Amino acid sequence: MTPYLAVFIALWGAFFISSVLGEIEIPLEVFAITLFVVFAGQRFETGNDWLTYRDHFIAIQQFGFSGGDSPQFPAFEPLYILTVWLFGRVFDFQAFLLFVSVFNGLVLYRFAKTWNVSVCGLAAINYSWTYLATQMATTRYSLAMSFILLAFIFLIQHRKFVAYALVIVAAGFHFFSLAFLPVVLLINRKLTVRLAASVLIAGFLIVHVTLFAVSSGWFNGLPFSEKLVFYLDEATVKQISAGSVGYIVLNLAFLVWVLCSQEDDDKMRLVKWSVFYLLFFQIVAWMLPVFWNRIQVFTVVVQACLLSRYMVERCDPVFLLTIAVLSFATLMKLLVDPAFISYVPYQSYWVNKVMMNAVRDDGESRFYQAIDRNRERAH
User: Which InterPro entries match (predicted)?
Assistant: First the structure.
């Protein structure tokens, strides 16, 4: 667990210095994004889903496109398969993980610069809340989220057709990316309480009718129907946890805070709609945390941009400490969770395997234990 805490201290330490100075320090920015990239990019047999992605990569590498058709693999999206095929012709899986991490890190850096905020703050908050479950787990979804971030960069720059095209590209890596189309389409509209209530009511009806239709087999012919059925069978929860309720309350407070703001530019509207969209999934589809967890990946980035800008501009150490404590509690909740057994201990490819030759041999065992514990929790 020590490496995770060391990264937390390093990122938040860099952000604290930036906040105290009240300005963005380039050396600290480079340090933060480098640490953000390297920690995920050179992990070895650490995190959720690594075994599935590794075996899929090797199958494509050895047998071409047909290698990924095995029943042991889920139905991966075409652009992800193409990327794996191209990369696998030259490099191995470890190099692929590093490539993904570098690409995601560069996009995150570009997103921060579009907002003119501290990368230290964005990296520190992102690391504490969603990094483990995204950058160190769902490889293709992390790539898809990078294209979604690029789409909103172009949308803020009023280049709509490029933004729409990038959402389609993102869907080529993970179909769930299409769920962000409502935010893309609504970003020019002002979010009001009346509109929010109307969307919640309509969304509740649409989501529950859709879930009924899926369970009844009405969507069996659609390309994503198999995944929807899988989520209904394996990913639904019977009751909402206290932690989830607390997180909903926290997001409600955040939404009230931003709605009170007089700012109404594209960035602030994106913040408002993103937080509301996450709350929408948390309230309407609470029984499917796998859905709102994916929305959370994007929303946390947007929230982190706003918080990073606020804390550097205001130089408020008390506010910064409050956010840091909440973030630390969130990170620790994940690390001590039995379902995160595949993350602890952290193993580095270059340090543990190449330099020290001291890699543990229980990586696959912990991977399957994590899957079993997640299933036990759902049922």
Answer: EpsG-like
